[in-house]
From TrEMBL:
It is a multi-pass membrane protein. The keyword Cell membrane applies. Pfam families: PTR2. The chain crosses the membrane at residues 21-47, 59-79, 88-105, 111-129, 150-170, 176-197, 218-237, 243-261, 273-291, 323-344, 356-377, 389-411, 423-447, 467-485. GO terms for biological process: peptide transport. This is POT family proton-dependent oligopeptide transporter. Keywords: Cell membrane, Membrane, Peptide transport, Protein transport, Transmembrane, Transmembrane helix, Transport. One of its GO terms (molecular function) is peptide transmembrane transporter activity.
Length: 493
């Protein structure tokens, strides 16, 4: 493909954001519409249409989420070694469209087949589009974090629209249509990418361009065929949650060993940066384990213990639980992005380790606020939706100090040849987070099923208080070790 600009010209953009960022923004926005649209339907669909018991459906849901994020490592690896980001995105997009089409055709009969396609498709798509954002910036460009913040808004616009639209269509009209909508929107994402990729200079082209065409094609086709062959295997694993345990026990250590093996190719300086990246990755597991209570215990808490009055307006507490966070991200991500740029211009921007630490402090404050709802409860255990929403407002700032910044720092700390793998590892931490979140949530809800709402309120808020304390400790530890991590990061901020 003829490049219209060189990569240097792209990276020398004027203004706040490169125009290519907007293309990736829209592509990712529609992909997240599809992803969160599906995610929002899964548990409900399993309980009401596949007639699974609630606890089984919850476990099953956790397993799908863990697998989805775990496969980002595979997607990142194959992008770095064989396909390049562009072909990975294309292939991932196609897999996601096929998955949605299968589910649109017959969601009951082919449920796990459709999910398996989505798992592997997201694995190829999600980490690599994030890495591409990083390639739009020069190594020391202070505008990179702001770019990732904007990109993160796009993620949440998609999440908000898809999360609402798909389940609404499914519940009120037809599940075929709802899954079909996810597929149509994913097609829009892919077409957006295909039409705009020519503006990306040589970003994301195959890493094997130095090989003979026929040899390179051989590797590429082997990857495509391998993906298809893996589908039945993934399907079996996803549909048996007990396999998730084995999978989670092995994938982490394997990826770590792989990283150590790769490290032999890099200089001491580069390896120090990789170790710093691992510190961020490990801490993010804890962050997601707490944060992801939103899909699990907090949704049950919302259903059981929240009144539906929000400043005089009647709102569905579960709707608020699903939407508040995305809405706050959309509003505040660009603002916070600008705050970082402004602080930077006054030489007062906190570095990434401190931002991560702040993320945990916000997380702690948010969980204290969830805990605090117990003091607003009536005798029946029903408590304030407003205080609950306030907690989501606070948690959003925690997320914004960690999640987009985490994407950005992965692209800064990884050597070029390992960008996809490291982004995959970043998301693999989310897989572990999801997994641990399920275990934590199950622990909170294991109390007597027949407990009264007032008793449940106490059990859950006790749990949230515990999480607040752990988050506080994590934040303090991070800030305390920040000088050490900064040393490992060297010139990277
Ligand atoms: N909400 C963000 C997204 O969908 C972050 C997900 C994650 O890393 N766990 O991209």
């Amino acid at each position: 493909m003829q490049a219209t600009q060189t990569i240097e010209e792209i990276q020398n953009f004027e203004g706040k954001y490169p125009k290519q960022l907007w293309y990736l923004f829209f592509s990712e926005m529609w992909e997240r519409f599809c992803f969160y649209g599906m995610r929002g339907m899964l548990t409900f669909f399993m309980v009401h249409e596949l007639f699974m018991k609630e606890d089984v459906a919850n476990l099953q849901y956790g397993a799908t989420q863990a697998f989805v994020y775990a496969f980002t490592f595979v997607g990142g690896l194959f992008a770095d070694k064989i396909l390049g980001y562009r072909k990975s995105l294309f292939w991932g997009g196609i897999m996601m469209i096929i998955g949605s089409a299968i589910l649109a055709f017959d969601p009951k009969q082919f449920f796990f087949l459709g999910i398996a396609f989505t798992v592997i498709g997201t694995g190829f798509f999600k980490p690599n589009i994030s890495t591409m954002v990083g390639t739009l910036y020069k190594a020391n460009d202070a505008r990179r974090d702001a770019g990732f913040s904007l990109f993160y808004s796009g993620i949440n616009i998609g999440a908000l629209l898809g999360g609402y639209a798909c389940i609404y269509l499914g519940k009120n009209y037809s599940w075929n249509l709802a899954f079909g909508l996810a597929g149509i929107v994913m097609t829009i994402s892919l077409v957006t990418f295909l039409f705009t990729q020519k503006s990306m200079a040589n970003i994301g082209l195959s890493p094997l361009l130095h090989l003979q065409d026929s040899k390179r094609k051989l590797y590429e086709y082997a990857t495509y065929i391998g993906t298809i062959v893996a589908i039945p295997l993934i399907m079996t694993m996803v549909s048996n949650p007990e396999y998730t345990d084995y999978f989670m026990y092995t994938i982490g250590p394997i990826t770590l060993l792989y990283l150590v093996y790769e490290m032999r190719n890099f200089s001491i300086q580069e390896n120090k940066k990789l170790i710093a990246a691992m510190v961020f990755i490990v801490f993010s597991i804890f962050f997601w384990a707490f944060f992801e209570q939103s899909g699990g215990s907090l949704s049950l808490f919302a259903a059981n213990n929240l009144d539906s009055d929000f400043l005089g307006v009647n709102l569905d507490p579960n709707g608020v639980n699903n939407a508040a966070n995305s809405l706050f991200v959309i509003i505040f991500a660009p603002l916070l992005g600008l705050v970082w740029v402004w602080l930077n211009s006054r030489k007062a921007e906190p570095n990434t380790v401190v931002k991560f630490g702040l993320g945990f402090l916000f997380l702690a404050l948010a969980f204290y606020t969830f805990y605090f709802t117990r003091f607003f409860a009536n005798i029946d255990g029903m408590t304030s939706l407003e205080i609950f929403t306030l907690a989501y407002f606070i948690i959003t700032f925690g997320e914004l100090c960690l999640s987009p910044i985490g994407l950005s720092i992965m692209t800064k700390l990884s050597p070029l040849k390992l960008q996809g793998v490291m982004m995959g590892m970043w998301f693999l931490a989310s897989a572990y987070g999801q997994y641990v979140a399920g275990i934590l949530g199950a622990g909170m809800s294991s109390a007597n099923e027949n407990a009264s709402k007032a008793e449940k309120l106490i059990t859950y808020t006790d749990g949230y208080q515990q999480l607040a304390i752990y988050a506080l400790i994590a934040g303090v530890v991070l800030i305390a070790i920040s000088p050490l991590v900064k040393k490992l990061m060297q010139e990277v901020k």
